[in-house]
Amino acid sequence: MGFESDRQSIENCRMDRRCFTKLCYLLKTEGRLETSKNMSVEETLVSFLHILAHHTKNRVVKRQIARSGETISTQFHAILRAVLRLHPQFFKNPQPIQNDCEDSKWRWFKECLGALDGTHIKVNVKLADILRYRSRKVNIVTNVLGVCTPNLQFIYVLPSWKGSAADGRVIREAISRRNGLKIP
Q1: What is the CA radius of gyration of the chain?
Q2: HSE of 6 in the Cβ direction (CA atoms, 13 Å)?
Q3: Would you tell me how many other CB atoms lie within 10 Å of the CB of residue 31?
Q4: DSSP secondary structure of 48-103
């Protein structure tokens, strides 16, 4: 299932054709994903990415690609399992900042895993939701908590807090979630 252009691929899957091909290869080799009797790996990945990118229900996708809802669901979960097998390749455990660190930005964070901060990102929402997303400065925003390593790689992101929220409230939410932020 190929796309004629990168633009078409990005619109449907949120990635260009080169990235899509690399992900297919990784899912086949490292994730041990195989073509089923109903769908190829490429077709399965397209439907998976389309569901995620467009918040589409299985019943909509089944009409688009002429497959049963059971097939869509089974293949969706197969992709999820394959992605989880890729976990060690994509997610690295952060290393604490060394005691002998001489970087002027990070030397104050000895034995820490990284830095944590929140930011507001302007968003467009439905008219009915505007009040929930309004910040104390009257902007329409979502509050995002991010944790990054000294290499500026994100190791945790908690998006989609509507409007303003106190930092303590956001960090409590991040820690209390089932698979939330783990603080050693």
Answers
A1: 20
A2: 5
A3: 22
A4: HHHHHHHT--HHHHHHHHT--HHHHHHHHHHHHHHHHHTHHHH--PPPPPPTT---
pLDDT, tens digit, for every residue of 116-160?
777 778 888 888 888 888 887 888 888 888 888 887 788 778 876
Cα of first residue to Cα of last residue in the chain, in angstroms, is 44
HSE toward the beta carbon, residue 26, CA cutoff 13 A: 18
Torsion (CA) 105, 110, 112, 115 in degrees, nearest 10: -10
Q: Say which range, 59-63, 118-122, 135-139, 179-183, has the weakest mean pLDDT.
A: 179-183
**The tokens 């690295």 sit on which residue?**
92
Enclosing H/E stretch for 146: strand 141-148
Per-residue pLDDT band for 184 (boundaries 50, 70, 90) equals low
Q: Say how far apart CA 170 and CA 168 lie, in whole Å.
A: 5
d(CA 77, CA 83): 10
Which pair of structure tokens corresponds to residue 57?
Answer: 């229900």
Predicted TM-score of the model (pTM): 0.57
Spatial CA neighbour of 29 closest among 21, 17, 19, 37: 21
